[in-house]
Specification:
Blueprint (H helix, E strand, L loop, with lengths): L10 H24 L6 H8 L3 H4 L6 H26 L8 H15 L1 H8 L13 H18 L4 H5 L8 H8 L11 H22 L10 H18 L5
Helix pairs in contact: 1-2, 1-6, 4-5, 4-7, 5-7, 5-10, 5-11, 9-10, 10-11
Length: about 240
Amino acid sequence: MPAQTTAVLSLRERRRAVATQEILDAAERHITGHGPQALSLRAVARDLGMTVQALYHYFPSRDALVTAIIAKAYDDLADAVRTALDTAPDDPDLPRLVVAAEGYRRWAIAHPEHFQLLYGTPLRDYAAPVEGPTTQAMRRMGGTFQHELFGGFTEAQLAAVETPELSPALLAHLDRLPVGDMGYLPPAANALLMCAWGQMHGLVVLEVFGHTPHLGAHQAEIFRMAMRNMLDDIRGRIPTG
């Protein structure tokens, strides 16, 4: 079999890639220093010593730059969750879903401005492209949590999960959601996944946005307890037979 060859980028392409990365880095620094709402092409261009017109050669609009930053932030968050799982000690008493959730929490605490960009007040006049890179990056992270929550169970088991009675309209909507990396997820299990995500994410939002200072240094312990209880409840709803 002939060896595969990797296409070599031209000098022009390499220079463009370097310049694009420098722009993204400058935009991220601006977000860290001034918050997401202050992001503008003019401010990024000024930080790089270039004109706005020159920046347009790489990102034709603020929305294009914002989309690239949001997609990268989602990828960085997903990488942090993946790293937490890959480097976790072999502890049978610590479920991998809890490990993943704690990786999510740590990244959010370490990068509050980028977390705010993803989940805080939407940027004025910005709309993410439908089925664009931000959606794909978000689904990658969601797939990791889906795997840790439901991996090892059959479709029949997940279809038989115990939930409060769900309306036909909700079940139909959940049944039409895009298929993730694990394949088809029955509507009732999808509802549990949404509830689990909301509980985990809600606790992180409260902490990152400064609403739980009364817990002090005990926030990590509260979070772990909540994730364990949530997982026990969900696993208890899945038939074992």
